[in-house]
Amino acid sequence: MSISKSTQYGNIEISIDAIASLAGGVVTECYGVVGMASQKFLKDGIAELLKKENYAKGVVVRQKEDHLELDLYIVVSHGVKISEIVYEVQQRVKYMLEKSLELEFKKVNVYVQDVKVMK
User: Fold this and answer.
1) From the first residue on, what is the mean pLDDT of each consecutive set of 10 residues in the chain (119 residues)?
2) What InterPro entries does its record include (predicted)?
């Protein structure tokens, strides 16, 4: 599946994986974020940390009639205020995706899958 965009020069097709990779890269640069997590919990309720090539498993992009919605699944660091991390992730991802892709994202939902203690 891909997102279609028309310009004066022709049509542009942006794959969901490209959007997921871009969003995952921005998320992992945010303070307090350990990494991207899979949407599904592994056995015993432990979240799987994703590597760079698998960010698409932790990002869901939904195309609505006139806008896009994004779900991000993350793992955060222990000892940092979760609400601040989530707010920063939402703001940075929305800004970078809209600036880079020139598409409108109305919702950026962030789901904290796990809290890791960093040594």
Assistant:
1) 85 89 90 85 59 77 86 92 95 94 91 84
2) Asp23
3-state secondary structure of 115: strand
Tell me the whole-structure pTM to 2 decimals: 0.84
How many angstroms separate the CA atoms of 95 and 109, rounded? 14
Q: Which domain holds residue 109?
A: 1-114
Measured CA to CA, the distance from residue 114 to residue 77 in angstroms comes to 9
For 59-94, the DSSP string reads EEEEE-SS-EEEEEEEEEETTS-HHHHHHHHHHHHH
Tokens at residue 117, please? 């203690």
Closest CA to 33 of 44, 24, 41: 24
Does the residue 102 lie in any domain?
yes
In a domain, 104, yes or no: yes
